[in-house]
Amino acid sequence: MDNGKALELLSGEITKTIQAAIQIEQLEAFAETLGQKLILTQRVLTHLMPYAKKGDYERFLADASIFMEFLSLILMSWTWLEIALNASSALENKGFYSKVFYESKLHATNYYYTYELHKTTGLAGILLNSETITVKKDKEPII
Question: Where are the chain's structural domains?
Fold first, then answer.
């Protein structure tokens, strides 16, 4: 819709978080990783959008659940980076909660980036594949 205007706005918000986090040494690697995943997202969308533009919606939506899983992992990593930014600031400024509370947020962010976000690489591989395994064929399969 509107040539992906909503995703463009979302990407802008994520980029703001990345730019803030990259300034904090402890969060720099997370910010860089998320930036790379945004580039991967653009690559996936560049691959899929031509199908929608030419009206091949069956092909465009064939792996919609995989795309939603892919994008949700990226959005959650953005959320965790926001949480890490807030926790880092709170640790520096003696936030309301205990030091352990804020450190646990940073630890959880590390967990998410280490164990969950990397799943996007495999999902992107599926989305970038030119196979049409999940698209209905006119012929019956040969068994």
Answer: 25-128
Tell me, what's the pLDDT at 51?
Answer: 78
- The secondary element (H helix, E strand) that includes residue 58 is helix 57-61
Low-confidence ranges of the chain (pLDDT < 70): 1, 3, 133-143
**The tokens of 121 are what?**
């690489």
Kindly provide the b/e burial profile for residues 96-135, where b requires at least 16 CB atoms within 10 angstroms of the residue's own CB.
Answer: eeeeeebeebbeebeebbeeebeebeebbebbeeeeeeee
Exposure of 59 by Cβ count < 10 A (0-12 exposed, 13-18 middle, 19+ buried)? middle
- The amino acid that residue 70 corresponds to is F
Return phi, psi of residue 107, to 5°: -65, -45
The whole-number pLDDT of residue 32 equals: 97
Q: Rounded CA gap, 85 and 107, in Å?
A: 12
Q: What angle do CA 125, 30, 45 make, to 5 degrees?
A: 35
Query: Which residue in 73, 64, 67 sits closest to 43, CA to CA?
Result: 67
Distance CA(78)–CA(16), nearest Å, equals 10
Contact 82, 106 (CB under 8 A): no
